[in-house]
Amino acid sequence: MRKPIIAGNWKMNKNYDEAIEFVKAVANKVPSSDKVETAICAPALYLRSLVEHQGENLRIGAQNMHFEANGAFTGEIAPGMLKDLGVTYVILGHSERREMFNETDETVNKKTHAAFANGLIPIVCCGESLEERENGTTNQVVDAQIKRALAGLSLEQVKETVIAYEPIWAIGTGLTATNEQANETIGYIRSVVAREHGQEAADAIRIQYGGSVKPSTVAGLMAQPEIDGALVGGASLDVESFLGLLEF
Ligand SMILES: O=C[C@H](O)COP(=O)(O)O
C-alpha cells in the first residue's frame, strides 16, 4: 500500500511575507501524515523560515540543488545545506530546469545520489514534449529519463524515491492529461522501474502526476490505480486551492 504524496511546487513565486503567511495558514490544516504526505517546495531563500512553521504534518522541499558537497560553484546550493535547514524533499530534473538550465539525465542521476547521501528524498521529474507525444515516443522518452535518473541506486533508495510524471505540454497550460493517459504512462514508468530494479522497487516507488492539476481534477487522477500523488504548480499558490488538493 503506497502512501499518497501531494506536493506544491511554487516555482519562482511569492515574496517572503506571503510565503510565511501561507505556511502558517495551512500547517495545521493539512491531513495527518499517516494518511498522506504533504509538501511545499519553495524558493531556497525561504526554506529555513518555512521549516520553522511547518507543523506536524506539512514538510518543506527545495526545487533544485547542486550535486557537489561544496566548492567553487557560484550561486549554487549544496545538498548538505538543504539538510541543515531541515528540508525533507528536493525536486530534481523538472522540465523547466532541463529546458532552461541545461539539466541532463546525468546531472539528475548525480543529484539523486547526492540527495540520498544527505538524507533528502528526491522527487525526480520526467515527461515528454507535445511533439514526442504526437510522435508516439512518450514511453521511450520516460523510459530513458527514469532508467538514467535512478541508475546505481540501491533497492532501498529506489523504494524511497518519488517520481513525478509531468507531460511538458500539460504544465501551466490548462491542458491536463486525461486520467487514463496519466495512469497508462505512470504504469509504464512503473514497469521500467521493475525491469531496472525489480518488482519490489516498482511496487513501493511512488509516482505522482503533474500538469495543470486542480482541486476539481485531483480526485479523478488519484482514483487511478497507478497514480500515487500530484506535483502541483499554479494551484498550489492559493491557500484554499492548496487545501482543496488535499481533499481528494
Ligand atoms: O511542478 C509542477 C508542474 O510543473 C505543474 O505545474 P502546473 O500545475 O502549474 O501545471
From TrEMBL:
Annotated localization: Cytoplasm
Catalysed reactions, semicolon-separated: D-glyceraldehyde 3-phosphate = dihydroxyacetone phosphate
GO molecular function terms listed in the Swiss-Prot or TrEMBL record: isomerase activity
Domain of life: Bacteria
Enzyme nomenclature, EC number: 5.3.1.1
Catalytic residues (positions): 94 (electrophile), 166 (proton acceptor)
Keywords tagged on the record: Cytoplasm, Gluconeogenesis, Glycolysis, Isomerase
Transmembrane segments: none
Keyword Hydrolase carried by entry: no
Residues annotated for substrate binding in this entry: 9-11, 172, 212, 233-234
Pfam families in the record: TIM
Listed PROSITE patterns: TIM_1, TIM_2
Record-linked InterPro entries: Aldolase_TIM, TIM_sf, TrioseP_Isoase_bac/euk, Triosephosphate_isomerase, Triosephosphate_isomerase_AS
Chief localization: cytoplasm
Pathway(s) of this molecule: Carbohydrate degradation; glycolysis; D-glyceraldehyde 3-phosphate from glycerone phosphate: step 1/1; Carbohydrate biosynthesis; gluconeogenesis
NCBIfam families in UniProt: tim
Described purpose of this protein according to its UniProt entry: Involved in the gluconeogenesis. Catalyzes stereospecifically the conversion of dihydroxyacetone phosphate (DHAP) to D-glyceraldehyde-3-phosphate (G3P).
Subunit structure comment from the entry: Homodimer.
HAMAP family: TIM_B
Family stated for the protein in its record: Belongs to the triosephosphate isomerase family.
Protein name: Triosephosphate isomerase
Organism: Turicibacter faecis
